[in-house]
Fold this protein.
Amino acid sequence: MDSRQVARCGVAVALLAVSACVTLPLGLVPFTLQTLVVAMLPVALGGRGALLAVACYLVLGSLGLPVFSGLSGGAAHLLGPTGGYLWGFLVGTATAGAVRRAGSLPQIARDYLGAALSLLAVYAVGTAQLCLVMGVSPTAALLMAVVPFVGPDAAKLLAGVAAGRRVRAALGVRPAPRA
């Protein structure tokens, strides 16, 4: 990893932390701009760089640095009812990176498809942990923590991919190779 990649990773971690600060409480799960950044990172940095940034973000938060929503941190956030959505960022980023490298679709289609599948992975992992920790049904968890966010998250996904494409072009990073 060269110094540019390390710097990009640091900036990406900072973006995730800042995006968590934009918080509107909507019940159990707060509205943040994190899904916008999670959609942007695989497009801007590529799958490996984005995955490393999200992993670093989760490690820093688990160590107690106030990088999660509401300027909070600690391992309890990763193990609590909404921690699955944080873990979902990691799974979703890996998913988006894989989609961006696969298939015969044009790069722009892979970027948006990867982001959409990433968001579904965040929802799936988050909902599963919410069900386990709170003992609620999948339907109740979806109604509580996913349905209110689908529209705003779709808009953030579109904005995140568009921003990621611009950042990638500005950085001179080549698109992901096809598998």
Observations:
- The chain is about 70% helix and 0% strand.
- The chain has one domain: 3-171.
